[in-house]
Amino acid sequence: MGFNIESYLPDQLKNNVILFYKGNVDSDVINHILDTVEDKMIQVNDQSRLRKKVYNVLVESLQNLYHHVDKVPDDFEDQTSEKFGMLIVQKVDSGYKIITGNFVKTDNVERLEEKIKKINRSSHEEIKELYKFILNHQRISAKGGGGLGLVDIARKTGNKLEYTFKEYNDKYSFFYLDILVNEDN
Amino acid sequence: MEPIIIEGTPKTPTVRFDAAEGVFEIKGRSIPENSVEFYKPIVDWLDGYKETPLDKTVVNIRLEYFNTSSSKCILDVFKKLEAIHKSKNEVEVNWYYEEDDEDMLEAGEDYESIIRVPFKMIEIVE
C-alpha cells in the first residue's frame, strides 16, 4: 500500500471535522474555504474574537501552502495539483484546530523545523519582537511570502506549533502542522 | 493630482487617497495572495504626493483583517508617510480597531513603534 496522507492523522482528529480538503491550493480554493468556515462560525454563533483569530490563522495557513509548498513527488497519486496541500478544520471544546499538510523536500526539512523550534521556545513577548523584526527587516521573497506566517500564527493563538514530518521517500517528507486556536488566548 | 480610488473586494480593501483634501483611507479586508501587486500603485502614488504634500495629511486605517504579506506593504505605505512627516508636513494616522480585537490594536502599536509618525488608536464600539 502506498503512502496515505490521512493514515497518519490521529483518531481524535476524525470527529467534529467541519472541513476537510486535499488538492490544489489556488486562490479560488482559498476563497471558498475562507467563506465556508466563516459562514459556519457565524451559524454557530462563535464569539467574534475567536472567529477573527480562526479566520486570521486560516488565511496564513492557506497562504503558507500557496506560497511555500514543494512540488509533489513523481509517484504521488495526485499529479495534477501544482500546489498540493491538505487542510482540516475541526471543532474542539475550547475552539478550533486547524491542521495543514504538505510535501517538503528532505533538504528543506531541517530549516523548517529549526524555524518552528525557534518560535516554540520563544515567550509571547519574544514572538512579538521577532514579528516586528521580520516585518521591518525582511523583504517579501520571490515566492511571495513574507516569512511572517508561522510567527503570526504563534502570536495570535498564543499556543505552541505542533508538527510532525513523515518520511515519504528519501527525497520527500509530508509535513503536518497542527494549530489550536482557542478562546483563552 | 488625481485621487487614487480602488473599490474593495472580499480580499482587498477600499482605498481612497485624495490629494486635494489630504485625507487617505484604507478600509476593509486586505488578504490577497499577491499583496505587492495590489499595493504598488498606492506606494507609487504616494511618491508623487510626497513632492507637494498638503500641510496636513490625515490617514485613516480601518481594517477588519490583513494578512502578513499585506503587513509589509502597509509598512511601505507608512514609510512614505514618514518621509512626508520628516519634511515638516503634518501627518496623522488614525488606526481603528473593533473593541474586542486586541490583535488589531497590537498590530497598530507595532507600526507606531516602527514609524515616526503620530498614531491615534481609535476603538470602534458597536
Descriptive keywords:
heterodimer; A: 185 residues; alpha+beta; Heat Shock Protein 90; 5-stranded antiparallel beta sheet; 41% helix; globular; B: 126 residues; alpha/beta; Transcription Regulator spoIIAA; 6-stranded mixed beta sheet; 6 strands
- Counting DSSP E segments of at least 2 residues, the number of strands of chain B comes to 6
CATH architecture of chain A: 2-Layer Sandwich
Helix content of chain A: 40-55%
Biggest sheet: strand arrangement of chain A: 1-2-3-5-4
Task: Produce the secondary structure layout.
The complex is a heterodimer of chains A (185) and B (126).
Chain A: E1 17-24, H1 27-43, H2 48-68, E2 84-92, E3 95-105, H3 106-120, H4 124-137, H5 149-157, E4 162-167, E5 172-182
Antiparallel strand pairs in A: 1-2, 2-3, 3-5, 4-5
Helix pairs in contact in A: 1-2, 2-5, 4-5
Chain B: E1 4-6, E2 14-18, E3 23-30, H1 35-49, E4 56-66, H2 68-86, E5 90-98, H3 102-114, E6 119-124
Parallel strand pairs in B: 3-4, 4-5, 5-6
Antiparallel strand pairs in B: 1-2, 2-3
Helix pairs in contact in B: 1-2
